[in-house]
Design brief:
The complex is a heterodimer of chains A (317) and B (486). In chain A, 75% of the residues lie in helices and 0% in strands. Chain A contains 15 helices and no strands. With 317 residues, chain A is an all-alpha fold. Chain B contains 13 helices and 22 strands. In chain B, the strands form 6 sheets. Chain B has a 5-stranded mixed sheet. Chain B has a 4-stranded antiparallel sheet with strand order 5-4-19-20. Chain B is α+β, with helices and mostly antiparallel strands and 486 residues long. The two termini of chain B are 25 Å apart. The chains are: A mainly alpha (317), B alpha+beta (486). Chains A and B meet through helix 1, helix 5 and helix 6 of A and helix 8, strand 7, strand 9 and strand 10 of B.
């Protein structure tokens, strides 16, 4: 298929997944801040830290001192990673590759865009978050049920799972940025509460209860969100899916184009499967997640340089 | 919709009966539903310098233009005749140039024209077709006669609105349709696809042909249409950067490598098509495309160089061209036009300037237009001076009155002037989409139907059979066949 369209589908998958994760993250933070006033603000700071957006946020705050982290991450039209910008970019791409999508998929993306493009304040935040989550779920369902199962759909899935792996790793990492008050200790009530927020942010609390009868501990949460092969948002699940969809997408692609990305994906997947959650926590969860995100970045780079934007080779005779 | 005596014209009767059952509230409610349908399907334009996310839809009126089949049959024949003659004309000026030797049209008018492409001389495109897709703008004059206002032979747009307007009507006001009596319009993409395959380069097997649409990109105002047609035909929508030329063959940049392209339905103007031959600063084109085209390895649709034939001055000569090439009288007349190229026209122009509209022949956007009846004597004198100093740059037409169709202004129905752009596809033979794009002016006074001037559009119905003379005759209710129609 057309390289440009493949790249757009890959990014459409990334943006939609990112939007859904941001909405869920914001929803959980809203809940947390309702329950524990002072910690809510810190939770947002952690979100900004884990997205690597501290500088962008302080800059925006200089122009507008009243700006809250939530307004920045959700509504900002200046910050390209905000929920609103993300949806706007997804819709822009959908418009560009509309001929590839079904009418139903495009119209749902368009509706999502129209419903979030209005200025904030005219509906409650929870309604907005619920709307985004439901709408993205509808788009994925329509995609599965109305778009031909061809190479393009595999690229869409590649983008989706790569982004999900990235977002899950960032959600786990928020815990690193929330400092425990010195009076509390690891394993104490606040520590447990924070890990539960992490679970909720990844839609994983129920899955956790099915896996573990006991208390919520950092090691168990990290184990589920990183290494559980049956949990659909875990890092290893996403990498297995990414590898599978990548192989299908590149079934007819010459090695010269596909091998660099394939190598990055396969090595990352194998390293994850070989890792152990206790070891990871002992040697530094944050460092592990940082490295993981950097390696996803290399996958993205290889996809762009070798496949989506590869220079044309000699044409077939 | 109405005859001069106030009675409802025959083709509109069934529709009028149904609409009469609505009150203003019903109409407003249905209009809102139709507008939402349009907004959701993304047929919008963005209003710049406004709050983010402000997108507007083109105004759409639920009252269609309705045409009786007997009347349409004549229009259809007339359009076929006109496009055939225009294709013959283009083949001639890039070939033997008989029309020039025979004095039908002045040589300078053709060869000095900025849209004449010397590179096309001596080249014959597949099947000899130049204008594969033509949009011919028509109006109905005071006598109810359709006349050609303008030929659009480069990259005419608007057909996606025809198809989407019909879809919106069927979705939101199905009960206004006289049962199964309106000819469908959604056959267009299939006809287009068949035509693209028919004009493929020699030697390419029919089941092997790869057609694409070439767009300037998402920022082009007609991008929705480019993407719509690609989706409807199931072919790729490409930009210039997606194509490469090697050894005079065109390839598409795919994930798996390069893939051969045979037919390009381009929605990019000649000037931007190939930086090697035309504007060298063009980023929208494909380097080397023109050589591949002239080598016969790829077909470009519409052909390069058709702009000579849809020029304002050439328009004056089209009736003569029809007579010359086909030996027939034009079925659809032109609007009376006078050009400074003809001595007798020039004399008439100068004598009657106070009753004519004077236009520069190469202008667009209304620049340099003098409306005779509204101009002061000084303005007219100055205009005469300009015409005398360079007569070939000017054309003049009488103030043209044209027909109106009712539109709802929010409270009441009011008449709005409307034109009609039917679309003609030509490959092995010509096919005319039943109906076309009806564009309406923004208010009762306006003569301008362009969307850029706030105009809107309507669905256009060509009925399947002529309505009976008796206005009271009930229409057969066939819910079965109505369902099939949808």
């Amino acid at each position: 298929m057309l390289s440009r369209t493949a790249e757009s589908l890959y990014w459409l998958g990334r943006y939609l997944e990112r939007a859904e994760n941001l909405a869920r993250l914001a929803d959980v933070n809203l809940q947390t801040s309702t329950e524990q006033t002072s910690d809510g603000v810190e939770a947002w700071d952690a979100v900004i830290a884990t997205m690597g957006a501290q500088d962008a946020f302080s800059e925006a705050q200089e122009d507008n001192p009243g700006l809250t982290p939530a307004d920045f991450v959700i509504y900002s039209t200046q910050y390209p990673q905000s929920l609103r910008s993300t949806i706007s970019q997804a819709r822009g791409l959908a418009r560009e590759i509309r001929e590839y999508l079904s009418r139903e998929v495009f119209e749902e993306i368009n509706r999502l865009y129209l419903s979030t493009s209005r200025s904030p304040g005219d509906e409650s935040h929870r309604v907005l978050y619920a709307n985004v989550k439901r709408s993205v779920a509808a788009i994925l369902g329509l995609f599965d049920n109305t778009v031909l199962l061809t190479e393009g759909r595999e690229w869409f899935r590649c983008g989706l799972f790569l982004e999900r792996a990235d977002m899950t790793s960032r959600i786990i990492d928020t815990k690193y940025f929330i400092l425990l008050p010195s009076s509390d200790e690891v394993g104490g009530p606040l520590d447990r509460y924070q890990w539960m927020s992490v679970l909720r942010s990844a839609s994983a609390l129920e899955a956790f209860r099915k896996r573990h009868r006991g208390t919520v501990t950092g090691a168990r949460v990290a184990g589920l969100l990183m290494f559980d092969r049956e949990f659909p948002r875990s890092l290893v699940f996403c990498l297995l899916a990414l590898r599978r969809h990548f192989e299908r997408a590149t079934a007819d692609t010459p090695d010269a184009r596909s091998v660099a990305a394939e190598r990055e994906i396969a090595l990352l997947e194998l390293d994850l499967r070989a890792a152990d959650s206790a070891d990871v926590i002992r040697s530094g969860l944050h460092q592990f997640l940082d490295e993981f995100q950097a390696r996803l970045g290399r996958v993205d780079q290889a996809l762009r340089d070798d496949i989506f934007r590869a220079l044309p080779e000699a044409p077939p005779r | 919709m109405f005859a001069p005596d106030g009675s409802v014209r025959a083709p509109y009767r069934a529709f009028h009966d149904r609409l009469s059952q609505w009150d203003a509230d019903t109409y407003r409610r249905r209009q809102a539903i139709a507008d939402l349908d349009t907004l959701n399907s993304g047929i919008t334009f963005t209003v710049y310098n406004d709050d983010a996310g402000t997108e507007r839809i083109f105004p759409f009126s639920l009252v269609p233009r309705i045409i009786a089949p007997s009347e349409w049959a004549r229009v259809e024949r007339g359009l076929g005749q006109r496009v055939t003659a225009l294709n013959r004309f283009l083949g001639d000026i890039y070939g033997e140039q008989r029309c020039i030797r025979d004095g039908v049209i002045p040589a300078e008018l053709v060869f000095d024209h900025s849209a004449y492409r010397l590179r096309m001389a001596g080249f014959t495109p597949p099947l000899g077709v130049y204008c594969h897709i033509a949009g011919i703008d028509l109006i109905r004059d005071q006598e109810g006669v359709f006349r050609v206002l303008e030929d659009n032979l480069r990259t005419p747009s608007g057909v996606s609105y025809v198809i989407e307007n019909r879809r919106t009507m069927l979705n939101t006001v199905p009960e206004l349709f006289p049962d199964a009596r309106v000819q469908p319009v959604d056959g267009y993409p299939e006809r287009l696809l068949e035509m693209l395959a028919a004009v493929r380069p020699e030697g390419v097997p029919a089941d092997h042909v790869r057609s694409v649409i070439l767009t300037p990109g998402p920022h082009n105002s007609a991008y929705f249409e480019h993407s719509f047609l690609a989706r409807q035909m199931g072919i790729e929508l490409v930009e210039g950067r997606d194509l490469v030329v090697d050894d005079d063959r065109v390839f598409l940049r795919a994930t798996t490598g390069l893939e051969r392209v045979h037919v390009i339905y381009r929605r990019v103007d000649d000037d931007f098509l190939d930086p090697l031959v035309f504007r060298s600063d063009s980023l929208l084109g494909v380097t080397g495309l023109m050589n591949a085209y002239l080598a016969g390895n790829v077909t470009v649709v519409n052909a390069v160089g058709t702009g000579v034939a849809d020029d304002k001055t050439t328009y004056r000569y089209v009736p003569d061209l029809i007579r010359y090439y086909l030996g027939e009288e034009p079925i659809i007349p032109n609007v009376d036009t006078y050009t400074g190229w003809k001595a007798e026209d020039l004399e008439y122009m100068l004598d009657h300037l106070h009753e004519l509209v004077l236009k520069p022949s190469d202008g667009s956007g209304g620049y340099g237009i003098v409306v005779g009846p509204q101009a002061s004597p000084e303005t007219l004198d100055a205009a005469r001076e300009r015409v005398r100093s360079d007569p070939r740059k000017w054309i003049a037409q009488p103030v043209q009155e044209f027909s109106t169709i009712p539109s709802f202004n929010g409270d009441v129905f009011e008449p709005r002037r409307a034109d009609l752009r039917p679309f003609v596809i030509t490959g092995d033979s010509s096919w005319v989409l039943p109906g076309g794009l009806t564009r309406v002016a923004a208010n009762t006074e306006s003569y301008i139907v362009n969307s850029s001037q706030g105009g809107g559009s309507k669905d256009t119905w060509v009925l399947r059979s002529d309505p009976e003379g008796d206005p009271a005759a009930p229409f057969p209710v066939q819910s079965q066949s109505h369902a099939q129609e949808q």
